[in-house]
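Sequence in, structure out. Go.
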Amino acid sequence: MLGNLFLYAANRATHGVVGNVARQASWSALAALLLLAGAVFGLVVAFMVLEAQVGAESAAVILAAISVVAGIVCLSMPTMLDKMEAAAKPAEPATLAETSAVVQEEMTQAVDYFGAVRVVASAFLLGFGAAKQLNHRQA
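Output:
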């Protein structure tokens, strides 16, 4: 019965995810390849323009410095976004009504999946096991 419970939870958590991930990964890989090609051609053009104005060595140093600064900004962006999201979140916890609505939804899904008798039997067995653990701790 616990195996069915874990299988149900896994099915609920991963419903349709594999197909979405494969599609997202293939399109993201293609986009990354095209963006990389665009960036390389853009750097070549920028080098040609700068080379005519400041010389080859100076143009290479300028483009390298710009690339390093842009890379550092990109690496620090997830941390900055996490901080901004944490600051924007409300400090109050979820209300009792929201929590009970979530529990009601999950219980409805579990009863629809397993049937009422299995859900009640599983809840009884889980509660009985927890009571045994509490009884052993108190003794």
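Check: The radius of gyration is 28 Å. The chain has a mean pLDDT of 81.
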